[in-house]
Design goal:
This protein has 255 residues and is α/β, with parallel strands linked by helices. It has 10 helices and 12 strands. Strand 4 and strand 5 form a beta hairpin. Helix 2 packs parallel to helix 3 and helix 8 runs parallel beside helix 9. The N terminus is likely disordered.
Length: 255
């Protein structure tokens, strides 16, 4: 499969309709930068899906910064997604590329002599979607992080063709970073269906004003604002988020 070939991952709602089943929920969680709160938001989303009775699984297609534990490579972000879901599948599906070096994926992969290929990722996504009611795919770093010399996370999101939830880390400069990311998402023909404000600093001047400015400019609903949490768990973050406006959210009315 060439990078310019058509998307091979079927839209979850189309597959569900073919099976005569209720529409499946699926989304891609992107961020304005690395260490911005994507995993916390993705885990909170999975936690909420499980509470709604959905068979749910998280997917971190590429994870950089893994350590060996009990004979298997582990990455903290990928592990948090596993813990938040209730469908547990092989790591080869949920994280096809588990890289040791905590660096940009194309650098980490090169150090290990690995070539990141979108085909195994898309194939793994199809298997996960077939085994679940809901799947949350978390990106790596910001929206446009290189995976190879000519393929990045924006290309991956485009091939998956999922609705996007954007996580904005609240800090100085977040308005510019968020709006540029929104433009990049739209330029790929992807649908931005919601965004989350995640508090990164104990005190940020004019945080409310920044959120107001973003709300006026981002063409998608604000799903919630996560404060600085004493214990940043999926359950704690979920208390501040409302995902019911997202397409195909379990229990959401459709007209």
């Amino acid at each position: 499969m060439a990078l310019e070939d058509p998307v091979i991952a079927p839209e979850p709602q189309a597959a569900a309709a073919a099976d005569g089943l209720p529409p499946r929920f699926a989304c891609f969680v992107a961020g304005t930068d690395t260490e911005i709160g994507k995993t916390l938001t993705s885990s909170a989303m999975l936690y909420s899906l499980v509470r709604n009775g959905a068979r749910s699984c998280g997917m971190k297609p590429v994870a950089a910064g893994a350590v060996m534990r009990n004979g298997q490579l582990h990455n903290d972000d990928a592990d948090q997604l596993v813990d938040a879901g209730n469908v547990h599948l092989p790591q080869s599906l949920t994280t096809p590329y588990m890289l040791k070096e905590p660096a940009a994926p194309h650098i980490a992969a090169a150090l290990e002599g690995i070539a990141i290929d979108p085909v195994p990722i898309l194939a793994a996504y199809i298997e996960i979607a077939a085994a679940t009611d809901a799947i949350v795919v978390e990106g790596v770093g910001g929206f446009r992080v290189p995976l190879t010399d000519d393929f990045d996370t924006a290309d991956l999101a485009e091939q998956l063709a999922l609705p996007v939830v954007l996580v904005v880390g609240l800090r100085l400069g977040c308005i510019n970073h968020a709006l540029l990311t929104v433009e990049a998402i739209q330029a790929r023909g992807l649908k931005l269906v919601g965004w989350v404000a995640n508090t990164l600093e104990f005190e940020m001047n004019f945080a409310d004003e920044n959120i107001a400015a973003l709300s006026a400019r981002i063409p998608a609903p604000l799903l919630g604002r996560i404060p600085r949490l004493a214990k940043p768990t999926a359950a704690a973050a979920a208390e501040y988020l409302n995902f019911t406006s997202l397409p195909n959210w379990p229990g959401r009315r459709t007209t």
